[in-house]
Amino acid sequence: MNDQLKEAVRWYLDNQNDPDNRATVTATANIFKLKVNILRKAIQRQLTPIQKANKPRGRPSFLKPYQIEALCAYIRT
């Protein structure tokens, strides 16, 4: 994210406190000379919490734990 976009997002979020005089995305985009859609997406990303990616666990184990123990016991004897 470039500096101008970061500054616009920061300015937009800082000016949301007053319910009578809230900044709009369109007005903020015009002030900072940005495209409305780009600013809207950046604000949306800023407000969305980061979620951890689900790591694939791979293929399930071929043998059950009790089968592994039985196999190990058989090998030892």
Keywords for this entry:
mainly alpha
Summarize the model shown.
This protein has four helices and no strands. Helix content is 57%, strand content 0%.
What's the helical proportion of residues? 55-70%
Radius of gyration of CA atoms, rounded to a whole number: 27 Å
Residues in β-strands, percent: under 5%
Order of helices and strands: HHHH
Largest sheet: none
Instruction: Give the overall shape, derived from the CA principal axes.
Output: rod-shaped
By DSSP (H or I, 4+ residues per run), the number of helices equals 4
Unreliable sequence segments: none
- The number of distinct structural domains comes to 1
- Strand tally is 0
Mean pLDDT: 88
Secondary structural class: mainly alpha
CA(first)-CA(last) distance: 64 Å
How would you characterize the overall build of this protein?
The chain is an all-alpha fold. The protein has one domain (3-76). It has 4 helices and no strands. It has helices at residues 3-14, 25-32, 36-47, 65-76. The longest helix is centred in the first third of the chain and has 12 residues, at 3-14. The protein is rod-shaped, with a radius of gyration of 27 Å. The protein starts with a helix and ends with a helix.
Task: Please describe the topology of this protein.
Layout: H1 3-14, H2 25-32, H3 36-47, H4 65-76
Helix pairs in contact: 1-2, 1-3
